Amino acid sequence: MLTHLLVIGSIIFLFVSIQWLSRRKQAKFRQSAQRQFHPKQEAAA
User: Fold this and answer.
1) In 3D, which of 17, 16, 21, 33 has the Cα closest to residue 45?
2) 3-state class of 38 per DSSP?
3) What letter would DSSP give residue 16?
4) Taking a C-beta distance cutoff of 8 angstroms, is the pair 22, 14 a contact?
5) HSE of 4 in the Cβ direction (CA atoms, 13 Å)?
6) What is the pTM of this model?
7) How many angstroms separate the CA atoms of 5 and 12, rounded?
8) Which residues touch 17 (CB under 8 Å, ≥6 apart)?
9) What is the DSSP letter of 10?
10) pLDDT tens sequence across 1-45
11) Which chain regions cross the lipid bilayer (predicted)?
């Protein structure tokens, strides 16, 4: 039972960390794209 919970916890942790990293990359890409195309949207956000 303990090992089962540890496996589930590690899988959830990996999934969350991967999503967080992908969100950070997308946010950086969006900021650079907004600076090039839509500077007003970046100021509003």
Assistant:
1) 33
2) coil
3) H
4) no
5) 1
6) 0.53
7) 11
8) none
9) H
10) 789 999 999 999 999 999 999 998 888 877 777 666 655 655 555
11) 6-22
